[in-house]
Structures are given as structure tokens and as C-alpha cells.
From TrEMBL:
<feature type="transmembrane region" description="Helical">
    <location>
        <begin position="88"/>
        <end position="110"/>
    </location>
</feature>
<feature type="transmembrane region" description="Helical">
    <location>
        <begin position="116"/>
        <end position="133"/>
    </location>
</feature>
<keyword id="KW-0472">Membrane</keyword>
<feature type="transmembrane region" description="Helical">
    <location>
        <begin position="48"/>
        <end position="76"/>
    </location>
</feature>
<keyword id="KW-0812">Transmembrane</keyword>
<protein>
    <submittedName>
        <fullName>HupE/UreJ family protein</fullName>
    </submittedName>
</protein>
<keyword id="KW-1133">Transmembrane helix</keyword>
<feature type="transmembrane region" description="Helical">
    <location>
        <begin position="145"/>
        <end position="167"/>
    </location>
</feature>
<feature type="signal peptide">
    <location>
        <begin position="1"/>
        <end position="21"/>
    </location>
</feature>
<feature type="transmembrane region" description="Helical">
    <location>
        <begin position="173"/>
        <end position="196"/>
    </location>
</feature>
<dbReference type="InterPro" id="IPR007038">
    <property type="entry name" value="HupE_UreJ"/>
</dbReference>
<dbReference type="Pfam" id="PF04955">
    <property type="entry name" value="HupE_UreJ"/>
</dbReference>
<keyword id="KW-0732">Signal</keyword>
Length: 197
């Protein structure tokens, strides 16, 4: 049985929840390369909740979902990004991004144990919206390839933070904490959906 080190868990939580609100899809601040790509998902609460939720749900589902979901998300996100770069329209992108937090949060809060292929389809569907939103911004970036690499790395960090939170289920009270985190994620996604966050 793996033992969770409180200091490491605390650091992961601090990094995850210390992010400040950012206007994620205005196109502003997307003029840099690797660093701005890396910080973009970490400083945007809409990304933080969805990407942490992917790792958290994967950890809750256990093997092999703990690694499959955090791999599916950036791969499909890259596809959505390519659609955005190509100018292929996808309706209701911002709504899809907000719904990702709502739906994933509810799945975690209700402790839904979906088959791995269903979980991958759900995660992949939401990843298209996240990727498309940023694909439409990439052509204006000074170095779009570096930005994309930074964005994927930032996404991975958030997935790992979710996985770290998921290890709370190993503790006697951990399942309740994980489900409570799902409620918070769903509530924040609902706030984005209602336009109040």
C-alpha cells in the first residue's frame, strides 16, 4: 500500500489551488511560447477544474484509467486544437468547457464507475472543446509550437495534481474528500456555465 506524504500532497494542492482567475479565451497573453503555454491552463480556473477532474476521476477509477484518461485528454485536445487552427467551427465551445467541469465533477461526486471506454469517450469529448478554444488562438502566437508544447505540459501537471488528490481514497476518510472535491468542481463548472465566474 502506497503511503501518501502529507508534505507532497500539500504542495500539490497548493500549486493546484493557488492559481488566480484568468480570462482564458480572450486571446490576450497568447503571444509567447513555451512559458505562456505552460501557465495558461494553470492560471485559468476553467482549465484547472476540468484537468484536475480528469486526473482525479482516473485515480478514482483505478488502473488502467489512472493513466489512460490523462493520456486521452491531451491527445484529443491536440485534435481539437488542429480543428481550431484549421478554422473548423465547433458550436458552443465555451459551454462545452464549462460543462466539462460540471459533468466530471458530478461523476466524481456520485462515485460513478464507468467502463474505461465510456470514461475515455467522455473525457475525449470535452478535450475537443478545450483544444479548439486554444487552437483558434495558436496562429497569433509568436511561437505556436512552443506554446502548444507548454500547454500540453501544463495540462499534464494539472492531471498529476488530480491523480495526487485521488490517492486520498487510500485513507479511511479519503473517499468522502474525493467526492467533496467533485462537488466543488461541479459547482465551479456551474458558475462558469452561468457566467458568474
Amino acid at each position: 500500500m502506497t503511503r501518501i506524504r502529507p508534505a507532497r500532497l500539500g504542495l500539490a494542492l497548493l500549486v493546484t489551488f493557488a492559481a488566480t482567475a484568468a480570462a482564458a479565451h480572450t486571446g490576450e497573453g497568447v503571444t509567447g511560447g513555451l512559458i505562456s503555454g505552460f501557465t495558461h491552463p494553470i492560471l485559468g480556473w476553467d482549465h484547472v477544474i476540468a484537468m484536475v477532474a480528469v486526473g482525479l476521476w482516473g485515480a478514482f477509477l483505478g488502473m488502467p484509467a489512472i493513466w489512460i484518461l490523462p493520456v486521452v485528454f491531451p491527445l484529443v485536445m491536440a485534435f481539437g486544437g488542429a480543428l481550431g487552427v484549421a478554422g473548423v467551427p465547433i458550436p458552443a465551445v465555451e459551454t462545452g468547457i464549462a460543462l466539462s467541469g460540471v459533468v466530471l465533477g458530478i461523476l466524481i461526486a456520485l462515485a460513478v464507475r464507468a467502463p474505461i471506454w465510456v470514461a475515455a469517450v467522455i473525457v475525449g469529448a470535452f478535450a475537443i472543446f478545450h483544444g479548439h478554444a486554444h487552437g483558434t488562438e495558436l496562429p497569433a502566437a509568436a511561437n505556436p509550437y512552443a506554446y502548444a508544447v507548454g500547454f500540453v505540459i501544463g495540462t499534464g501537471v494539472l492531471h498529476l495534481a488530480g491523480i495526487a488528490l485521488g490517492f486520498l481514497t487510500k485513507l479511511p476518510w479519503g473517499a468522502y474528500a474525493v467526492r467533496a472535491a467533485g462537488v466543488v468542481i461541479a459547482a465551479l463548472g456551474g458558475a462558469f456555465l452561468a457566467g458568474i465566474a
